[in-house]
Amino acid sequence: MSIGEGRMASTITSTITSTIILVSCLPLVSVVAGCGRAADMPGAVILHAGNGAEVQDLDPHMVSGVTEHRTLCALFEGLVNLDPRTLEPEPGVAASWDLSPDARVYTFHLRRDARWSNGDAVTAEDFHYAWRRILSPNLAADYAYFLHCIENAKAYNEGTVTDFDVVGVKVVDAYTLEARLEHPTPYFLGMQVHQAYMPVHRATIERFGAMDERSTRWTRAGNHVGNGPFLLAEWTPNAVIRVRRNPHYWNRDAVRLDGINFYAIDNLWTQERAFRSGQLDMTDDVPLHKVRLYRERDPDRIVLHPYLGTYYYRLNVTRPPFTDRRVRRAFAMALDREAITHNVTRGGEEPAPFYTPPDTNGYTCRHRIPFDPASARVLLAEAGFPDGRGLPPIEILYNTSEAHKLIAEAVQQMWKQHLGADVRLLNQDWKVYLDSTNTLNYMVARSGWIGDVVDPVNFLECFLGGGGNNRTGYASPEFDALVHAAYAEADVGQRLELLQEAEAVLLEDAPLIPIYFYSRKYLKRPEVLGLDPNPLGYIRWTRVTLRRERV
Amino acid sequence: MWRFIARRLVELAPTLLAVATITFFLVRLAPGGPFDAERQVQPEVLERLKDHYNLNAPIYRQYLDYMFGLFRGDLGISFSKPSYTVTELILLRLPVSLELGAYALLVALGIGLGAGLLASLKPNSLLDHAPMSLAMIGICLPSFVLGPLLLLMFSEKLAWFPVMGWETPADKVLPSLTLGAVYAAYIARLTRGGMLEVLSQDYIRTARAKGLRESRVVLEHGLRGGMQPVVAFLGPATARLLTGSFVVETIFWIPGLGRDFVGAAFNRDYPLIMGTVLVYAVFVLVLNLAADIAQAWLDPRVRRA
Fold it and tell me: Which residues of A363-372 are buried (b: 16+ CB within 10 A; e: fewer)?
């Protein structure tokens, strides 16, 4: 070996050695990195919850998802809470409220002991500020439209009015807030648990930027100030959000958990494994294939209950053959919904013979789409396609998912069998699928709608002509007139009657084919108590407790 | 040698520029926009969002603005996580992926070199066939099969390791094994091939004839020559290992860059896609260069070429 080669060999050896030393030091690095987190007291009762996809942000005005809502309900509290069993309004930051005789003006009387997590008092001014913020055009908040029922809020949000004083929110005194609505809105109190209505702490927002500035750092742990039962202790994106008891929360004695760890695990199988191994106390969903197994072998660990949402197929009414109402009706009637929920989804879903989920704020649609293949064939023949002859190939579009695929295959088989239609399946990645439905570049597309509030109008207004969530090309002056009449109707019974008529028109026109009503399904250890099932999937974290104490 | 390195370093800049440019335009050509959602955003809100993120400017303007930002080290703000900058997200995730990759590399080298050496010493014996068959299985078994299998065995049945997470040393064993296994298999086969070729060379016979101990013959003289194909393979392989694996990070719930990369692509989070692609590109280029340098050192013919 020459001297040069010897040096070479020693260089390789030393490189390998230093790599090994470096790699063996890595655990130390992560141990040191983990030291920043404050340790919980021994015996602290911490709930470990699988939370699905990572939250976008912890600013109540910047987010729209279900996982965000679940997390924010621990960090903030609106004027009103809901009883998780009945979804009836209960006092929140507001101890009480009055409604004017014309059902358009709510006056909220705030409790005097409500505090922010830094000890400041929560006042009517905070709500006024928060609502002004979310409606600010520059903030470009997705859910600002949720406040459009407030007088002039829409105009302010769209920038046509610049003076916030004309918007129907008034601070009467430090602990009295008045909200004047455009028209009677029976679900206004229910909307108060939504993040769009939650208050924000003005001084904190403005310490990190302007009121209507996006993307500031106020939501980081250490900066974040909320008024909910818990405060933000740690937020590691794509990993975990740790919330701990808020010592300033007005109802702190009622809070039973010492903290909650929300784990951002979007893979259902990973979540289920973690639950089974004891790393999670609850999950946010269950893989479809596991539902039956848990129902049979471990029924006290799976929770299934109706969820306020409808799974349906959209029909593109601008593209033949679905330009013909008879063809749309025929396809709707040739679907055996019972068979789909019974044999395919099997997760406690209910077949949907109409669109709005049953018993939505006292409303159950009277009109039904029957499963009637014989009549469907007659309709199809009338439209010029006897036994499906002459029908172009029908394409069902769905976004990539095992469940959507299984359902589409079942539908494909039913339409083939009952109508003689040649049905093909097309799956697209989520954003491509959204683009296709937005631009009406499809024939049949799988869809779903989850209610934001427990009211039928929240479902029906999606199909107003030209609406952003319509995506079928459907426009019916009759349907639109009925929904608009319901908006203006103060009488609760009469309002629901108008919506009944509207839904009947919609189902007869059939721009959509309802398939099933969603069920919410998740896993939970029997020791987790206080998770009352309700169709909104709403969790009152103050009620939740863990029977077994552990860190 | 220095001229060789300098020339390769100069070549890095235009390659990175090309990667950035192609990615910039390709992601914008993909159907679907960053703010498309099941619940459609109000048109006026959408316009303001686009203004805020400079998406209403002409495409060449957006490109120039991005490039100027890039030269200043500003990778922009993530669309899907509006309170984080892309740089912050990368700095948060990359160390995790690097750590996982480093362990996996160690697993790959340890198992791969060992098995390859062992096999090359007694070719066509049981000592050769057993590790090489295992290596073949390792190559064929994708990590989305191996990961759940290891979890089933060691976490669910034996309860030796946690099923998910990235905090304690025990969390790190199965992911490192899963990620490293495929590479170990390749390295084993490459080492065996390389060693068999070298061990039949004259200078090895000379070394043996001089009465050197067999261990010195194999480890000192044989391994240096036999390592060449492995070193060439290690350049791009290390880049892949270190920059994260979406599959392994998803199965074991590890907050690394791989999950972000795929998530960003699905969400059309343009700045985050750009940021992660650039990180990948830098790693691939630098580690390929490192592999070339190592090879040049091992074999002077490459240096002169």
Answer: bebeeebebe
Topology agreement, domain A78-223 and domain A305-520: no
Nearest-CB residue to B106 (from A23, A34, A218): A23
CB of A126 within 8 A of CB of A134?
no
Q: What is the pLDDT of residue B303?
A: 59
Spatial CB neighbours of A63, under 8 Å, sequence gap ≥ 6? A55, A56, A57, A69, A72, A142, A143, A195
Residue of B191, B37, B171, B35 whose CA lies nearest to B108 = B191
Q: pLDDT at residue A38 above 60?
A: no
CB contact under 8 A, A57 and B83: yes
Instruction: Please give the pLDDT value at position B129.
Output: 86
Distance from CA of B125 to the nearest CA of A (A): 30
Residue A216 pLDDT greater than 80, yes or no: yes
Q: Which residue has the tokens 């896609």?
A: B273
CA distance linking residue A280 with residue A523, whole number of Å: 9
Give me the pLDDT at residue A49, please: 96
pLDDT-derived band at B302 (thresholds 50, 70, 90) equals: low
Is the pLDDT reported for residue A551 higher than 50?
no
Asked if A141's CB is within 8 angstroms of B52's CB, the reply is no
Mean pLDDT across A496-514: 97
pLDDT of residue B118: 86
Name the residue ranges covered by the structural domains of chain A: 1-75+228-283+525-551, 78-223, 305-520
List, for residues A356-401, the tens digit of each pLDDT value.
999 998 899 999 999 999 999 999 999 999 999 999 999 999 998 8
For A459, counting Cβ atoms within 10 Å of its Cβ (0-12 exposed, 13-18 middle, 19+ buried), the class is buried
Contact at CB, B164 and A137, closer than 8 angstroms: no
Residue at B274 is within a domain? no
CATH for the A305-520 domain, from 3.40.50.300, 3.80.30.20, 1.10.40.60, 3.10.105.10: 3.10.105.10
> Of A512-521, B90-99, B175-184, B280-289, which range is least confident?
B280-289
In a domain, B237, yes or no: yes
Which among B32, B37, B44 is the nearest to A432, CB-wise? B32
Pick the CATH number of A1-75+228-283+525-551 from 3.40.190.10, 3.40.50.300, 3.40.50.800, 3.30.470.30: 3.40.190.10
Residues of chain B neighbouring A279 (CB-CB closer than 8 A): 162-165
CATH number at residue B223: 1.10.3720.10
pTM of the predicted model as reported, rounded to 2 decimal places: 0.86
In chain B, residues with a C-beta closer than 8 Å to the C-beta of A290 are: none
The ipTM is 0.84
Of residues A1, A157, A270, nearest to B164 (C-beta): A270
Shortest distance between the Cα of B47 and any Cα of chain A, in A, equals 9
Closest CA to B99 of A155, A105, A24, A309: A24
Measure CB to CB from residue B99 to each of A26, A57, A468 and give the nearest one.
A26
What does the alpha-carbon distance between residue A270 and residue A286 come to, in Å, rounded to a whole number? 10
Contact A127, A233 (CB under 8 A): no
- For residue range A284-336, list pLDDT tens digits in order: 999 888 998 999 999 999 999 999 999 999 999 999 999 999 999 999 999 99
Nearest-CA residue of chain B relative to A437? Answer: B38
Q: How many domains does chain B have?
A: 1
* pLDDT of the residue at A151: 96
Round to whole Å and give the CA distance between B264 and B258.
Answer: 10
Work out how many CB contacts closer than 8 A connect A with B: 148
How far apart CA B75 and CA A520 sit, in angstroms, is 39
Q: Average pLDDT of chain A?
A: 89
In sequence order, what are the residues at sequence separation of 6 or more whose Cβ sits closer than 8 angstroms to the Cβ of residue B276? B90, B257, B260, B261, B264
Q: What angle do CA B184, B186, B190 make, to 5 degrees?
A: 115
Instruction: Measure in Å the smallest separation between the Cα of A98 and chain B Cα atoms.
Output: 32
